Amino acid sequence: MSIHFGTDGWRAVISEEFTFDNVRRVAQAIAEKTLADRASQPGDRPPAQQPSLVVGYDTRFLSDRYAQAVAEVLAANGIAVWLTASDAPTPMVSYAVVDKGADGGVMITASHNPPRYNGIKLKAAFGGSASPAACKEVERRILAAGDTPPRRIEFSAAQGLITRFDPFPAYESHVRRLVNFAAIAEAQLVVAVDAMYGAGRIYLARLLRDAGCQVHELRSEMNPGFNGIHPEPIARHLGPLMETICSGKYHLGLATDGDADRIGAVDVDGQFVDPHAIMALVLEYLVGQRSLRGSVVKTVSTTQMLNRLAERYGLTLHETPVGFNHITEHMLREPVLIGGEESGGISILGHIPEGDGVLMGLLLAEMVAVQRRPLGVLLADLMAAQDIGSFRYGRIDQPVRPFKKADLVRGLMAQLPQQLGGVAVGQVNDRDGVKYTRVDNSWLLIRPSGTEPVLRIYAEAASEGQVEELLKAGVGLAETQIAALATA
């Protein structure tokens, strides 16, 4: 079988493609790439310093064992391994790469994907996702190895090469420099935290309590099958959190995904606050309350509110393909005030170039504490501004048979509509899928997923009715092209 790294790593079904043998094959390729990179850049570190990688894992079935298997292969290749002592959020593991001065990191997780999946995320020395080129190099080495078995040393025999450690203390010290814990404590917030059985299950609640909040935890126990839920913090998966918040006892509800690199929120009235709104509110807060400056980086599927706020404050805005690695590229070369995706992966100035649901949850608590208003009121005030306006968003995930993304994009671009829903299309781009932006600033995006056999159709407009109309048009356009591909 071929192992393919998508927008953020390799993911596959446990016991089908995601097996111990294949995990070890990937680990061997990562080890070889790490050693080759070190050999090609001898001046980067003192010659005596041993190459090292941080290895972490989430709460999924067998993740701890897969992480151990990775560590054994890396150690057999002479690479020192910092292995987390327990499950930990991806952003915490990524920060540990920087804190330890490691060559990179490996995270065992399938993030927000269903319980039957597991996966591997590859991290670079700067604490963010490895570049597409680096992932392709790992793929190439896997293919070149053929049937050659990976090197391996038994865990019990790897003393001195594998070190168990707790990534929390260094991470805590770092986020305390980014979040005003004193301001949160003064407000005496009551917060509900839904970990969705994922790797954020201990840490966000712990940090909020350290900040003086009264915290109620939901779905925080260890459950490798996620109790059958899809650990993605979107409205249709957050019923228990919404119901809890509706009791009227809480100022804020927060949810993190399977590996806690994504954030979702629920307002005091039990309404879901999506990542589009979160990013807009955080940008407004960082500029308006903290007087910070920097560029704004958003993926192609993310709200136009960020465009309008960037224009309001004279900030440079970049739009990228989906995948946090594209945001990372900007964060490595310029001061980025906020960078994020519609999926809820968001980072801010001063942090590593990595989506971080734990950090964003803390920052939302700070925003509510400092401004003494719930998220829904803050969002309504923002949309009431004449230079921003009202925005609503929707997405459809449609299972599809496998096809080449380039073929679908080519077909859609060859038959561009002049209008959608009676409003003229003003701009089209194929940066990632095909995005149609209407002259009223509403938009439709048709994009195949990079990690699942799913076609994603996104839309944003001024009203729910317009969003539904755009999504319906998107389904029609996509189905026509998919049918054409099937007969080609």
The 3D shape can be described as globular
- CATH domain class of the largest domain: Alpha Beta
* CATH homologous superfamily title of the largest domain: Alpha-D-Glucose-1,6-Bisphosphate, subunit A, domain 3
The largest beta-sheet arranges its strands as 1-5-4-2-3-6
User: What is the CA–CA distance across the termini?
Assistant: 26 Å
Structural descriptors:
six-stranded mixed beta sheet, single chain, six-stranded antiparallel beta sheet, Alpha-D-Glucose-1,6-Bisphosphate, Chain A, domain 3, TATA-Binding Protein, alpha/beta, 488 residues
Task: Please tell me about this protein's structure.
This protein is of the alpha/beta class. It has 3 domains: 10-167, Alpha-D-Glucose-1,6-Bisphosphate, subunit A, domain 3 (Alpha-D-Glucose-1,6-Bisphosphate, Chain A, domain 3, 3-Layer(aba) Sandwich), CATH 3.40.120; 178-384, Alpha-D-Glucose-1,6-Bisphosphate, Chain A, domain 3 (3-Layer(aba) Sandwich); 392-487, TATA-Binding Protein (2-Layer Sandwich). The chain is 38% helix and 22% strand. It is built from 15 helices and 21 strands. It has helices at residues 20-40, 63-76, 90-100, 132-145, 168-176, 181-187, 203-210, 239-245, 275-288, 305-313, 324-333, 357-371, 375-384, 405-414, 464-487, and strands spanning 10-13, 52-57, 80-84, 104-108, 117-124, 162-165, 190-194, 214-218, 252-256, 263-266, 272-273, 295-299, 317-320, 336-340, 346-348, 392-399, 419-420, 423-429, 434-438, 443-448, 454-461. The protein has a 6-stranded mixed beta sheet with strand order 1-5-4-2-3-6, sandwiched between helices. Strand 9 and strand 10 form a beta hairpin. Helix 7 (203-210) runs parallel beside helix 12 (357-371) and helix 9 (275-288) packs across helix 13 (375-384). The two termini are 26 Å apart.
